[in-house]
Amino acid sequence: MSSYSGNGRLYLAMTLLAVAALTCSSLTAQGPSHRSARLISVTFDIPNSFGAGGPGPMSGPEPSATAANSLFGAADVWNNLPAAFGVLIENPSWSNLLDHKGRLTGVTFSITGTVLPVNLYPFIPSAYVGDTLRSRFLAWNSWNGPVFGGAGPGESTTIHWTISGLQPNKRYAMFVYGAVADISRSFDMTIAGVTMNVPTYIFGSPIGAGGVYFPNLFSDSQGSISGDALGVGNDATALNEANWVGFQLVETPLF
Rounded to two decimals, what is the model's pTM? Predict the structure, then answer.
């Protein structure tokens, strides 16, 4: 009888441990440690200061990124980050970004440098009737010469950026978007020692609009990914202006 009772107590203890383990696993999957496995999509909300009109906020999947990696196709909710049209901003930062389902992630996107928010819709509206993504961007490396335009002198020629609050030591894929405008220009994006040129596409060009794909990026031990965006060419006019529309970032499996 006493042997039976001992076995019963052992079975009960093992059952309770199993339930506790399952409960802990469930909480972990729903809590902050799971947040960075979600897709984060970022662009900029730069109101049209010349009046009504223009495309609405970005949402849903973007074809060129989805073609590069199907995980980007899960995009539903985007972070349309606010910035004032035509006003230079120094070291901007946006915190607690949303994932593709609109859930808070605790992830922060920050820039070190001075950039100019631009909305091109008022200047070439026909280019953006069906494109909610590429008319609004952050610009740098322009109008620092003797004849000033835009917001005047002060833009950076190179910016540094950081995405923090991610899972530490995980692999991510990132798609970086270039704008559409009336002339061809570009900037160089360097992440983890890899440099790719991000073009500003000419409206009506047969190559279409898109961006560049970084498939193998690893967050550091603090849960951050960072990079540098270098202006290409002389910064005296807008001919070499860097135009960054935004990005998508998703954690990818190691195997």
Answer: 0.83
